[in-house]
Every structure is written in structure tokens, then in C-alpha cells.
């Protein structure tokens, strides 16, 4: 269990923004010197608000984005340095589930065709009848019926479509699945169904998940460890329990305090830290600690010096001068 | 407190390729002066259409308000002429939409969008309108408001645009604001800012609010009373404190149980509501929730109506007594 399946080291991805009329160009540091690892069989949650770099991190691990610098080690191999041919076989082992089950399924293909396509493209099952049998098996694994294979995406509900997205990812028998906001587009009553399904599949198939989400309650439920990002940087990494019970970074503390709890009595007695201001533009990030303009605890040093990610307690890392 | 808005037996239908759909099917609720009421439910339950019906903004000819009364300060809005209705929209009842990007005009300045309503409803012109616009932007916490007036919506972040929407809604001192998922498109730290702002302003100015949301946490913190909707009907209605402490409808109970909570120990498994959301073109006879309900009995083939289960607490379920007994056991 302790073997690292994925190791991301000093990963950066910068986007060049061209100048235009009335606008100057620049560099967006979408992710900046990010390092973390995922052990086999583990679920690592990646949380943060829009623009924090969590989706870009996922896309880099999938090599849908070429990193600007840094390395990504998967099963001991630096995948950022692979040839296209070697990459092809690696891609089978890392699959993705997208947020929007409406736009991520081809509306002109049947569910059966959608799930069978990767099996065909990668030449995993060349015989058509065997492929169809495998599709039926996959449908059953995600809680759908064999007759769903003949339907089109528009004939299914959002929750059923997300199950199809999961079946398509499972078809490759991957070791790692990047789940990019897999439940946030779904209705509340359906979210729990999908979360349970992902957990069941993990147990049964020994899967490893990188679970990208902004919903802190869902991340707490599903993750073994959690990585918190803010403006392209990791601000805190810890085991689930440590992160939620004893958050060390003021940003993590504020995020947790911002989540409303469905209990009026508790909410009335709760002291909330409401953060001032908004996330600054990544084109022009603040000096020193990127969080300091909004931080309720900021001191002079925070504006001048970038806090490194330090191990404050065993296994609990935070990037804060005051931690 | 007197009822400011009283919706009685409202029915709004849409003509679709699958047949006529009752998006809102005989729904009654009210908002009293100065209070905050929530309409809670999942997509397609009719919560947004309820608000659009109050504003008479249901898109015709596909959509139609078929029956019911919408009494605002005792006047039935459904009987008003369109020019009379225009005096109500923005002046008496204002709306805050979910998507601040698509509900602001991208080619008009922030200032123009604020002053338009002031000119029409308040007869303010020139410097007076401008001064009021600056005051409004300041009130919703937009820094440097005088300079901001000349900018366009795309210069604003998502949170700032939603502040701007709230400023527009408050412009003509309405008595009631309908807020349709006002923070759903926003990040959680900004969501907290906007909700706190809305609550402070509604208290300070005495404006009543209807919040439409699917987020049970938001409801718990900000609503005085709650109406839970499912498939076009209200299935449960109570004060927020009562609803969370004593849910009496299996759907409400299911919603509360299906979300993981930060204040509780992590559960081994979540308890989802089984099955799929209802397809409004093919609703089962009787109670629409019955195909997904753990408490279903034969009688559910007959639709239950809202009945008082405790003081000021109604639920539409035949088995609400059994539900309570089994919860206690």
C-alpha cells in the first residue's frame, strides 16, 4: 500500500497570454512548483477554488497539457519524457472521469459504442462479440442494465450518464483514475449514488483515485489524503483526519469555515471567518505568500517572503510562516 | 406578520415534445414581510418556474400560467395588465439570477444598467441617478464605486457581478427580492460573502427574500421558513429549525441523509436516494416520489395532499407518522 503509484515533482505549467488591443500580455502561472504523490489504492483529494490550478494539475497528469517544467512519475517512469508510442500504452493505465456528463459523451453514439470505442482503438478486444460481452459486463459493474447499450446519451439521466463515463474509464482496466469534479454537476440525491459507486469500484478493482473537487464535504468523505491549492500553489497536504480536524493553513481554515452545515441550530452558534476580497489575478499574483492580501493572520513577513511547503507534523505539510 | 406575497394553487405548464408538463402543479406558499423563505429542491422540481411565474416571466407560448392566484399586498398579479405588471417588476419585486454574466447586458456600462431602473421607476435623472447608483454600489461593498460606474460587466469578477445584481435589485427599494440560486455559480469563500451581504441588507432595509436553492446548508443558515419541492409540488413546509429537526417527508429525510456533513464523523457509506430523478412527462399516478421511496405503501397510488403534521408544519405523505416512529426506534 505504501508504494507511490504517481509522483509529481516540482510541476509547473505556465500559459502565455498574448497581448491585444487595450491589453498587455503576460504569463499565467496556472500551477507553480507543485509536488505530491499518490500511493497505490489510495484516494487523494485535490481541493481549491476556481483558478487554483486543480484541473490543470489533473490535465498535466493525463498529459493533456505538456508541463512547462517538472516531472511526473507513474509506476517509476517519467511520463513527461516518453515518446508518443510509449505514451499510448501508458494512457491506458491513467483514465479520466469528467465533470459534465452531458458534453463528455458523443450524442451520436450509443452507450454501447461509447464504452466499446477505447477497447477497439487500443486493440484490446478485436472480436466484436467479445467486445459486446465486455460492454455488458462493464454496464453491470456501474449499475446499469444490458439494454442501456442500445440507447443514446440523451435518453439517460445525468446520474446514468456519469455511470457511462465511469464504465468507459474502467474499460481500460486503469490503475489510476483522475476524477475531475465527478459529482458537482449532479443533483444532490444522485451525488451520493455516484460517490458510493466510486468507493465500491475502488475496493473491488483496487483502483487509485485523484479526486478533484471544490466540495469539501464530499472530499472529506472519499479521500484518504487531501491536497489544498490556492492560486497555483499547494498550501497544505495532510491525511484527511488531520486536515479537517486540525487545519494549519489559514486558507484551509477559512475554506472549512465557509461551508454551511445543514443544521440551523448549529449554524446559528457557529463563528465564521468570511474572507475579505477575492482571488487575485494569476497574471499578477501578490508578492510573498499568494494568500497574504486575504489572510486574517498575515504579518509583514508574508508580503516579502514566499513560505515553503514544510512538514509541520509527521505527514502534515503547510506553506505558512505562522504554522 | 402580514403576508406580503401569497401564492395560491399556482399551476404553470409547458408544452414539450413529450406532451404537456406541469412544471408547477397546484402550489401554495407565502412570504411575510421582512422574512426569508426558501424554495428547496433538485433540478426540474419547479422552484425556478415558481419564481418566474410570480414575475410573470414564464416564456409564452410554450409556458402558461394555467391556474391560481398570486396575491402581492392583496392584489392578484395574474390579473394585472402588462403595463401595470411592469410597475411591479423591479419596483415592488426584484429578482437576482444565478448567472450574473448572462443576466447583465455586456454592452452597457455598470452605471447605465443601474440608472435605467432608477429613471423608469424613481424618475431620477442625471446627477441624482448617478449619486444613487454610487450609493448602491457602495452599499453592496464594491470599492471605488464612482470609477466602477464607467466599467462594463466583463471588467467585474463573478462575485462582483453578483454584488452588482444585488445593487440593481435593491435600486428601487422593493419589498421583496426573489433570488434564484444566487450563489451557485460562485466559489465557496465568495458564496459566504454574498450570502452574508444579502442577509445584512435584507435585515437593514427590511426587504423580504425568497431564496431558491438546492443547497441544504445555505437554507439552514439563511432561511426562516422552508418549502421543499419535488416534481412540481410542495412536499413539506415548516420553519427551518423545525424542518431540520423533525423532517416528516421521506424525500426531505433522504436529502438530509444523502449529503456528507463536515460536523459529523465520516460515515462508511453515504445513504443516497435510490432511483432516478422524476421525468415530468411520465410521472407515476399518485405520489411522484413513491417509486424512490423506502416508506411506500399501496395507498401511495393516490396523491397525498399537504396536511398539518405538527404546529405550522405540513407534509404530503401518508406515512409520515410511521416515518417518525421508525426514526425514533
Name its key features.
heterodimer; A: 323 residues; alpha/beta; Rossmann fold; 8-stranded mixed beta sheet; 4-stranded antiparallel beta sheet; 11 helices; globular; B: 329 residues
Write a concise synopsis of the structure shown:
By secondary structure, chain A is α/β, with parallel strands linked by helices. Chain A has eleven helices and twelve strands. In chain B, a hairpin with a 2-residue loop joins strand 4 (63-72) and strand 5.
Description:
The complex is a heterodimer of chains A (323) and B (329). Chain A has helices at 54-61, 84-93, 111-121, 128-141, 158-170, 188-205, 216-222, 240-245, 250-258, 264-269, 300-304; strands spanning 4-17, 26-39, 43-47, 69-74, 77-78, 94-97, 176-180, 208-213, 225-230, 233-239, 310-313, 316-318. In chain A, α4 packs across α5. The two termini of chain A are 30 Å apart. Chain A is built from eleven helices and twelve strands. Chain A has a domain at 4-40 and 53-85 and 225-318: 3-Layer(aba) Sandwich (Rossmann fold). In chain A, strands 6-7-8-3-9-10-12-11 form an eight-stranded mixed sheet, sandwiched between helices. Chain A has 323 residues and is an alpha/beta fold. In chain B, α3 (110-122) packs across α4 (126-139). Chain B is globular and about 65 Å long. Chain B is 33% helix and 24% strand. In chain B, the strands form two sheets. An eight-stranded mixed sheet of chain B has the order 6-7-8-3-9-10-12-11, sandwiched between helices. Chain B has eleven helices and twelve strands. With 329 residues, chain B is α/β, with parallel strands linked by helices. Chain B has helices spanning 47-54, 82-88, 110-122, 126-139, 145-148, 158-170, 188-205, 216-222, 240-245, 250-258, 320-328; strands at 3-16, 19-32, 36-40, 63-72, 75-76, 93-96, 176-180, 208-213, 225-230, 233-239, 307-310, 313-315. The chains are: A alpha/beta (323), B alpha/beta (329). At the A-B interface, α5, α6, α7, α9 and α10 of A face α7, α8, α9 and α10 of B.
Amino acid at each position: 500500500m505504501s508504494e507511490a503509484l504517481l509522483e509529481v515533482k516540482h510541476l509547473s505549467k505556465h500559459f502565455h497570454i498574448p497581448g491585444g488591443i487595450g491589453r498587455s500580455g503576460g504569463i499565467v502561472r496556472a500551477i507553480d512548483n507543485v509536488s505530491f504523490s499518490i500511493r497505490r489504492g489510495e484516494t487523494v483529494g485535490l481541493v481549491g477554488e476556481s483558478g487554483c490550478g486543480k484541473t490543470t494539475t489533473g490535465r498535466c497528469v493525463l498529459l493533456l497539457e505538456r508541463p512547462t517544467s517538472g516531472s511526473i512519475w507513474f509506476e517509476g517512469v517519467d511520463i513527461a519524457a516518453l515518446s508518443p508510442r510509449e505514451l499510448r500504452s501508458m494512457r491506458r493505465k491513467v483514465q479520466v472521469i469528467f465533470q459534465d456528463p452531458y458534453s463528455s459523451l458523443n450524442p451520436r453514439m450509443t452507450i454501447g459504442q461509447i464504452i466499446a470505442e477505447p477497447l477497439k482503438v487500443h486493440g484490446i478486444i478485436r472480436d466484436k462479440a467479445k467486445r459486446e460481452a465486455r460492454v455488458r459486463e462493464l454496464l453491470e459493474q456501474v449499475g446499469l442494465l444490458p439494454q442501456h447499450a442500445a440507447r443514446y446519451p440523451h435518453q439517460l439521466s445525468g446520474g446514468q450518464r456519469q455511470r457511462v463515463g465511469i464504465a468507459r474509464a474502467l474499460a481500460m482496466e486503469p490503475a489510476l483514475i483522475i476524477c475531475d469534479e465527478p459529482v458537482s454537476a449532479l443533483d444532490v440525491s444522485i451525488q451520493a449514488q455516484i460517490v458510493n459507486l466510486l468507493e465500491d469500484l475502488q475496493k473491488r478493482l483496487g483502483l487509485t483515485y485523484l479526486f478533484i473537487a471544490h466540495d469539501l464535504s464530499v472530499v472529506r468523505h472519499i479521500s484518504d489524503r487531501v491536497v489544498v491549492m490556492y492560486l497555483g500553489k499547494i498550501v497544505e497536504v495532510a491525511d484527511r483526519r488531520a486536515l479537517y480536524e486540525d487545519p494549519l493553513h489559514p486558507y484551509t481554515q477559512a475554506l472549512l469555515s465557509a461551508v454551511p452545515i445543514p443544521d440551523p441550530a448549529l449554524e446559528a452558534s457557529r463563528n465564521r471567518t468570511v474572507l475579505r476580497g477575492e482571488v487575485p489575478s494569476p497574471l499578477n499574483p501578490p508578492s510573498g505568500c499568494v494568500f497574504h492580501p486575504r489572510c486574517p493572520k498575515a504579518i509583514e513577513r508574508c508580503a516579502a517572503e514566499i513560505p515553503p511547503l514544510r512538514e509541520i507534523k509527521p505527514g502534515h505539510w503547510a506553506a505558512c510562516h505562522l504554522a | 406578520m402580514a403576508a406580503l406575497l401569497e401564492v395560491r394553487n399556482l399551476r404553470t405548464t409547458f408544452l414539450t415534445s413529450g406532451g404537456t408538463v406541469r412544471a408547477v402543479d397546484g402550489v401554495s406558499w407565502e412570504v411575510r414581510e421582512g422574512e426569508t423563505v426558501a424554495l428547496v429542491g433538485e433540478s426540474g422540481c419547479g422552484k425556478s418556474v415558481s419564481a418566474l411565474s410570480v414575475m410573470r416571466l414564464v416564456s409564452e407560448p410554450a409556458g402558461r400560467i394555467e391556474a391560481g392566484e398570486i396575491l402581492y399586498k392583496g392584489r392578484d398579479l395574474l390579473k394585472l395588465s402588462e403595463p401595470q405588471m411592469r410597475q411591479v417588476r423591479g419596483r415592488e419585486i426584484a429578482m437576482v439570477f444565478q448567472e450574473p454574466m448572462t443576466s447583465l447586458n455586456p454592452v452597457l456600462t455598470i452605471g447605465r444598467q443601474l440608472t435605467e431602473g432608477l429613471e423608469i421607476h424613481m424618475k431620477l435623472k442625471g446627477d441624482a441617478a448617478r449619486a444613487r447608483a454610487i450609493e448602491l454600489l457602495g452599499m453592496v461593498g464594491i470599492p471605488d464605486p464612482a470609477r466602477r460606474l464607467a466599467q462594463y460587466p466583463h471588467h467585474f469578477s463573478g462575485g462582483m457581478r453578483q454584488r452588482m445584481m444585488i445593487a440593481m435589485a435593491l435600486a428601487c427599494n422593493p419589498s421583496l427580492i426573489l433570488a434564484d440560486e444566487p450563489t451557485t455559480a460562485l466559489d465557496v469563500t465568495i458564496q459566504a460573502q454574498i450570502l452574508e451581504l444579502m442577509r445584512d441588507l435584507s435585515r437593514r432595509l427590511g426587504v423580504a427574500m425568497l431564496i431558491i436553492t438546492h443547497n441544504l446548508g445555505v437554507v439552514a443558515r439563511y432561511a426562516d421558513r422552508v418549502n421543499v419541492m419535488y416534481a412540481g409540488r410542495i412536499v413539506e413546509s415548516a420553519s427551518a429549525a423545525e424542518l431540520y429537526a423533525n423532517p416528516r417527508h421521506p424525500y426531505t429525510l433522504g436529502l438530509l441523509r444523502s449529503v456528507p456533513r463536515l460536523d459529523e464523523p465520516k460515515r462508511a457509506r453515504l445513504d443516497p436516494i435510490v432511483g432516478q430523478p422524476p421525468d415530468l412527462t411520465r410521472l407515476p399516478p399518485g405520489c411522484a416520489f413513491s417509486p424512490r421511496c423506502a416508506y411506500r405503501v399501496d395507498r401511495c397510488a393516490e396523491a397525498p395532499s399537504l396536511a398539518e403534521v405538527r404546529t405550522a408544519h405540513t407534509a404530503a405523505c401518508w406515512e409520515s407518522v410511521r416515518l417518525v416512529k421508525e426514526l425514533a426506534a
